[in-house]
Amino acid sequence: MISNKLEKAINEQINHELYSEYLYIAMQAWFAGENLDGMAAWMEAQSQEERFHAMKFFRYLLDRGGKVELMAIDKPPVDFKNPLNAFREAYKHEQFVTGKINELMDLACAENDHASKSFIQWFVDEQVEEEATAEGIVRQLEMIKDNTAGIFMINAELGKRTFTPPTTEE
Ligand code: FEO
Q1: What is the pLDDT of residue 152?
Q2: What letters, b where the CB count within 10 A reaches 16 and e where it falls short, cover 117-146?
């Protein structure tokens, strides 16, 4: 049975992951409106990954005898101004999520909950990739600035992304 403190913190994390899904859907909509369909597709894949993260916490909490309590999801922004700003916001958001995952790990350690430490470690590793990917796109967009040809090249490249849920960790 999971502790009340960890149950509460995991429920909050489910909310953070669902907000992440929501935020990336909002970015998808904005990119689609700008006719940058590749970037919109990238955001769609990212939102699907966030849903997967949320449900991974959801299932873990149930497996440990905890109670899932869903909370209201905040309204995401509507206008992201330009591609660089949107990806900067995505990168900033991933840094926020990393902080929350680290807090969860600190709590699992304080509670001496070895199963939770092992479970949360997957997210600690995942966040390294999440931040690196977003930061990499920010760096590329910073290099090309307002170069339209460059924007369309990155748009085409990002449009190749799809999300396939990992099966081995389930
Ligand atoms: Fe679920 Fe992008 O962190």
Answers
A1: 96
A2: bebbeebeebbeebbebbbebbebbeebee
Q: Whose CA is nearest to atom 1 of ligand 1?
A: 50
For residue 112, how far is its CA from the centre of ligand 1 (angstroms)? 25
Q: In the CATH scheme, what is the code of domain 4-158?
A: 1.20.1260.10
Q: Which residues are near ligand 1 (CB < 6 Å)?
A: 17, 20, 50, 53, 94, 97, 130
Q: Which residues of the chain have pLDDT under 70?
A: 168-170
pTM of the model: 0.96
Q: Residue 54 CA: which ligand 1 atom is closest?
A: 1
Token representation of residue 170: 């389930």
Domain ranges within the chain, ordered by starting residue: 4-158
